[in-house]
Design a protein that fits this description.
This protein has about 250 residues and is mainly alpha-helical. It is elongated. Helix content is about 75%, strand content about 0%.
């Protein structure tokens, strides 16, 4: 019995998902252990400095901080609205889809009704996850928008700055996770045209994300390490990234 075209779904689709999962597992390890080699890690560390700067003079920087957070809330709201809208459209498409028809002629792979339902369900799950992550991002940004105006703690303590930095970083992490859910929907959408486009999209996406997620050179880390930071941030650290080498 030879290799038939519907067998491609059982070979290429798991291979593509495994590649994406492996890449993000490697990225998570780099963020936790070597944060200055990743864009996400560098941004998290610099957000700590931004919080210290904004809270150092709340009267002068308060408006700027709130406006910056408002822009992030608007961006998260846009993605959340887009995700739930696309989820509704996918739900309507699944409920009204008939048998293969003319669309099956361009699909080189398994074009059965059950597999088509699995494809649409996977895309729907991605959009729902993106919606939930962006809602959590809005939640944390909303908290930070009034916490950022709290007077800083006594010199050397920095408890309030540390708490605000954690909340801000969590908001950004949820934003990033919601964006990754959108990224995952691209290969799943191309899966509706067959497993070959889906696998190729996974390979291209990994190649592209590598250059977007990693620091371009050691200069990025050296520039960050040369920035003046408070003793509280250097010794203790506020973000979970800084504490990753001691606990997960």
């Amino acid at each position: 019995m030879g290799f038939e075209k519907h067998d491609l779904d059982f070979a290429l689709v798991p291979a593509g998902l495994l590649l994406l999962s492996s890449y993000h597992g490697w990225l998570l390890y780099r963020i936790k252990r070597l944060p200055t080699t990743t864009v996400i890690g560098l941004n998290a560390l610099n957000r700590e400095i931004w919080v210290d700067t904004m809270m150092a003079d709340g009267i002068k920087n308060g408006v700027l901080a709130v406006q910056t957070l408002r822009n992030n809330i608007m961006a998260s709201t846009l993605l959340a609205s887009t995700a739930i809208t696309l989820s509704s459209l996918i739900g309507i498409l699944v409920s009204s889809s008939g048998s293969g028809g003319a669309a099956a002629a361009i699909i080189y792979g398994d074009d059965s009704r059950m597999v088509s339902s699995v494809k649409y369900f996977a895309i729907l799950v991605c959009f729902l996850i993106a919606f939930l992550f962006n809602v959590q991002s809005i939640r944390y940004y909303s908290h930070v928008s009034f916490l950022i105006t709290v007077p800083p703690s006594k010199p050397g303590e920095g408890h309030s700055q540390c708490y605000v930095s954690r909340a801000l970083n969590r908001a950004s992490y949820f934003w990033s996770l919601g964006l990754r859910a959108f990224y995952f929907s691209f290969p799943l959408f191309l899966w509706t045209f067959g497993p070959i486009p889906m696998f190729l999209c996974c390979c291209i996406m990994i190649f592209t994300l590598y250059f977007l997620d990693t620091a371009t050179s050691d200069v990025d880390a050296s520039l960050f390490l040369s920035l003046p930071r408070t003793p509280r941030t250097v010794e203790e650290g506020c973000s979970p990234i800084n504490q990753g080498s001691s606990k997960v």
